[in-house]
Ornithine cyclodeaminase
Amino acid sequence: MSTSIPFLTAGEFYDRVSPVRAVRALRDTLRAGFDPAEDHQRISSRLSSGEFLLMPSEAGKIAGIKVLSVAPGNPARNLPRIQGTYILFDSETLTPRQLIDGVALTNVRTAAVSLAAIEDALLAGDGPLRVVLYGAGQQGMSHLLTLRAVLQGRREIESVTAVVRSAQNYAHLEDIEVVAAGSSRADEATAAAGLVLCTTTSREPLFDAQLVGPAAVVVAVGSHEPDARELPAALLGRSTVVVEDIATALRECGDVVMAIAEGELSAQDLVPMARAVRDPQLLRGHGPVVFKSSGMAWEDLVLGGAAVEAESE
């Protein structure tokens, strides 16, 4: 093994893997027959100041693992809450081939997974799209960037409203209406939205289920714990609920776990993301569409592979 493994910085990764390329790579992988149910489970190890997350995966000629640290106290220190590195290996020899900035990979991957899951539902809608974004942090902005890139020339975005706890902290956002959580304006915007993006660390539902319109698409990415949720159970009960993998959702997705516990949803109601991508008709004409993501290791592997492929083009 070489004593020097090449490292792909955040800037280099962003240059190689655009939002559109990331969405296409994920959708192509699912269309080609990859089954997320066969992916390896995320491993969590508690630490005194947070936790380690280990995310191993293997597909074809590559294997990889993302090593992340989650330190809830870091924002108060002006440090990232999540930090880490991705290690890409040759799957036959298990020789390390590439190191990739883990935060950049996560930022691109999380939003790309959301858009890969809901792209067909968004394109099936009529007229300009009104977007409500709960949480205007890094993941919120990544979702908005990816949304704009994927819909460019395909569907107009009429407006974006960001719902945040402290509106004054986001006065710098241009072309985005910023409103306070719990305000009447936040409720009005949510009721009128065609797309609601939930990218917060909230452990309780962000809004009332009845605010969401019958043709709306809702994405929730803020939690990967069975006792935390951003969405009310009643919303999932009247929606087509798409998840990356059913077993993973039942283990990690509090939005799903608690909706089932409260009798609003059953495991049989869940639609795997791979099925939704292969059969877009599943997401049309059946009330709201909810995509609940907790993040899976195969997604990082796909985008890590895409970054390596881009180098040779």
